[in-house]
Design brief:
The protein has six helices and eight strands; from the N terminus they run αββααββαββαββα. The chain is of the alpha+beta class. It has one domain: SMI1/KNR4-like (3-Layer(aba) Sandwich). The protein has an eight-stranded antiparallel β-sheet. A hairpin with a 5-residue loop joins β3 and β4. The protein is globular and about 45 Å long. The protein starts with 6 loop residues before the first helix and ends in a 14-residue tail after the last helix. Pfam families: SMI1_KNR4 (PF09346). It comes from Caldibacillus thermoamylovorans. InterPro entries: Knr4/Smi1-like_dom (IPR018958), Knr4/Smi1-like_sf (IPR037883). This is Knr4/Smi1-like domain-containing protein.
Length: 171
């Protein structure tokens, strides 16, 4: 399953857990349970994909965009009515890439999402092209040894909790 793109199955299984209001109950730290909403957007069109073809995207993120042009995962009152994870649309990825290049002077990295109270989820273009670990947090605190879909799968299994911190004491 290492090279299999299963993002559609992943998104479908999450959608199947949602109620009629696009919400589900999820566990948080210290045994709390909260009702969280999940929002998916209409898929990218072929024209949109061609318009932004200059941005090298991971294959599984490209597949995600063909299902949903961005998403907001786990929005609830527990975290102030903002999504724990916003996955960016093509437009927002392009804007983010331009911001990184023009303002931060970083040419080989662009954001594909944002984690609330944390950092951007970014792709390193050089690592992506070389088949390396291309996914990390923009603050430099974590480089992931996962593809996008593997990362998202773990995030969903952890119910929006930072799975990469679960082996550490709670803050």
């Amino acid at each position: 399953m290492e090279n299999e793109v299963y993002i559609e199955k992943l998104i479908t299984s999450l959608k199947n857990r949602l109620d009629k209001n696009s919400a589900l109950y999820r566990n948080t730290y210290f045994g709390n349970v909260v009702l969280s909403k999940v929002k998916f957007y209409p898929a990218c069109t072929d024209e949109e994909l061609k318009k932004y073809s200059s941005i090298p995207l991971p294959v599984d993120y490209l597949q995600f965009l063909k299902i949903s042009n961005g998403a907001e995962l786990f929005t609830d009152d527990y975290k102030g009515s903002r999504a724990l994870l916003e996955l960016y649309s093509l437009d927002k990825i392009f804007e983010g890439k331009n911001f990184y290049v023009n303002n931060l002077k970083i040419e080989d990295v662009y954001p594909i999402g944002h984690l609330l109270d944390n950092a951007d989820l970014v792709v390193n273009i050089r690592d992506l092209r070389n088949g390396g670990q291309y996914l990390s947090l923009s603050d430099g605190s974590k480089k992931f040894n996962y593809t996008f879909q593997e990362w998202l799968d773990k995030f969903i299994i952890a119910q929006g909790n930072e799975f990469w911190l679960l082996d550490q004491p709670f803050r």
